[in-house]
Protein 1
Amino acid sequence: MPTNRLIWLAWAALVLLVAARWFATSEDGSVEAPPSSPPAVAAAAPDQAVRAPLSALQNVKTGGAWNAPGNIVFTVDLLVDLPKAIEIKSIDVSLDHNDTYRVEILTADGYIPIGDILPIEGFGLARRQLVAPDLPLSMQATQIRISALEGDGMYSIGHLVINP
């Protein structure tokens, strides 16, 4: 008795498959592709920059694990988009302690280096201060780029606060 039921289910599945294929066939005999679903939001590829708004980095962190909740992990560059063009005097930032980073600001003339951050002893995030060079008021920053130059491949930022 169970064998008859399995045979019946197999036939029913085959009939449904043939019917579905028949209804999906266009007038010229080609099979139409099923509608595709929208792509899922994916993380940046390993060799691509990660983007974040400045507002995502405003909570000052003085330490903690490099990959703690709220930190942004990246592999090459982190691009911090500023809400408007501003003059930057200094930057307060926490980055993973055992890596080397370059911090640059984007102005109308392109990226201008603020400084390099070198590894230090410790654990997790390390808080640092960088002073920006004196720039003409017309060269206000619209973005900050933090590039991972060297380290263990596990780069992260906890906070970034701009002091205009």
Note: The chain has one helix and nine strands.
Protein 2
Amino acid sequence: MRRRRGGVGLLGVAAVAGVAHHAGTKSAQAQAQEQAQNQEIADLQAQQAAAPPAYAPPAAPAAPAAAPATDLTSQIEQLAALHTAGVLSDEEFAAGKAKLLGG
């Protein structure tokens, strides 16, 4: 009688090789998918860094109030100079000043 060897045999080796091949293929696919996702994330981050912000707060308005105040001051000074020179009476000076001040 022949005695059988105690190894795995040809079919066992083929089964182990098949499982190993399948596991290696799945691992490679998962790694490739992860690399693709990482590249996508890097691309999106680069686009966001290059793009201007979607919302920009409105710029502060220039100080237009300062110009009229200076103009108002100079107009009142002119009225005062005319009043001092005697060109305007007290009533005319008061009326002109009230008109300039909006009252």
Note: Residues 9-50 form the longest helix (42 residues).
